Amino acid sequence: MRTPTPLDELTRWQAVWRQLPLLGGLVVLWVFLWDHVDVLTITTGIVLAIAVTRTLYLPPVLLSGRFDPWRGLLLGLRMMFDVVRASIEIAWAAVRPGPPPINAIIAVQLLTRSDLVTTLTAEAISVVPGTVVVDIDRERGLLYLHAFGTRDEEDLAHVRRQVLGTEERIVLAIGTREQAAAVRAARRHRRATGDRPVVPEPAEVPPHVAREIAPEHTATRHPLDDEGKDDA
């Protein structure tokens, strides 16, 4: 038996209403592509938007129907601040003397399972210089990202806090009230306990289990670099 989804509880008109922003966005994109506004362009855009959303499979994206203007303003201001700060840090790292910065690919467990929140969080993170999302595990709500300048576990924890903070600001701006309450509770828990994930030693983890690799546990060079030297 198929597991009921939140979309099953919506009436036909409620489902159509929640899909209107997506349809409108596709129509606007179509008009921008043609760079011309007339009845024919808008009509073909509407027809194509309906055809795309009905024929091509996409996971259902449910909008909360809630938007907090103040939280949205704070989200935008914080993103601009993060972009400026990260740009300055990377520019300084490029010209300062000393060893090159150490980078890492880490996994961050998000607090929500909303496809919309996950997508917006990944986009917001990738906009900031120094962090790029390389993969998303939609089923488990995991973001895998390449982080710049991660020399120790404290740097990894800092990147993780930044990601969760971005997700929290997005949820407080457009998420449901239940999601907002959940991220606030998670924030209070982090501040009270100061918890951060413990990275086990490499020997304690079976080879088939995926895990986060801290910089101090990575190889100094690729094993394939030594191949062929004995034959020379």
UniProtKB/TrEMBL annotation:
It is found in: Cell membrane. It is a multi-pass membrane protein. Its main location: membrane. Residues 209-232 have a biased composition (Basic and acidic residues). Keywords: Cell membrane, Membrane, Transmembrane, Transmembrane helix. GO terms for cellular component: plasma membrane. Residues 185-232 are annotated as: Disordered. The keyword Aminoacyl-tRNA synthetase does not apply. GO terms for molecular function: monoatomic cation transmembrane transporter activity. The chain crosses the membrane at residues 15-33, 39-57. Belongs to the CPA3 antiporters (TC 2.A.63) subunit E family. NCBIfam families: PRK08965.1-5. PANTHER family: NA(+)/H(+) ANTIPORTER SUBUNIT E1, NA(+)_H(+) ANTIPORTER SUBUNIT E1. This is Multicomponent Na+:H+ antiporter subunit E. The lineage of its organism: Bacteria, Bacillati, Actinomycetota, Actinomycetes, Micrococcales.
